[in-house]
Amino acid sequence: MRKFFLGAFLFALTLPSQADVKNLSNAEFKQMMTQGVPIIDIRLPEEWQQTGIVEGSHLLTFFDKRGRYNLDKWMAEFEKIAGPDEPFILICRSGNRTGQVSQFLDSRLRFSKVAHVAKGINNWISAGEPTVKPGI
Q: 38: Cβ–Cβ under 8 A, 6 or more apart, which residues?
């Protein structure tokens, strides 16, 4: 099954951007946060330690240090946070990883309310926005 998902994931990366994926600015991110939309931080645990996290984030690493992932395991945890028709926000360091994962969730798995912080937590921090220590 993992080979199927790997092939589907790689195929999804070649598709044009879907209209349903929202590329959030910091201001849009804040607005969605105030509405209680769940935030899912897909970075590595050491990245959470280095920069802190946005308060209230769900910590759910997608790619390991080698760029590998276990989609079945990740989806089992992810689906406890958001369903296919529920809004959620993905965040990573710079927006690259969440851009890939967002496109895959939207185009291949048909999640309809996908959003990601387009420039990631680095831009959030550079703008003077707060982070907290992760409670790992």
A: 58, 81, 82, 87, 88, 89
